[in-house]
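HUMAN: Spend a minute on the protein record below and explain its fold to me.
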Amino acid sequence: MITSNPDIAALPWQVLSDEIARILSKDADTLENNINYYQKLRKTPGTDPQKLHNIYNKLIREQTRFFYFSEIYFRLQNPNLVNMMNGIEQVFSKQKEINGKEDDDFVIYFRKCQESSQVYYMPL
């Protein structure tokens, strides 16, 4: 079951992004080591074919998961998206300071003009 971890959910956008990059880097190293181990087993005479098949299937799942999460990470690094998410976090924080609570109904508007961007917040 997919659930949210409150400690992770409280992290600012950039900290979360940096942590994801660190995890993906470590996963890339682990995946490479696992592929090397599989290659070594393949060359070892007498290795159980079922064990090789199971390891191969696990590697394919790990590799696919790594590629999908890497792609999501790279897409989230789009500078416009990063600016927008940082701006939205700042606006939410300011509104909570001002009102003492989060609004239930609001509109957020992101404006980018040349190299400048701004996030606008309007409670409804």
Notes: The chain has two domains: 11-77, 80-123.
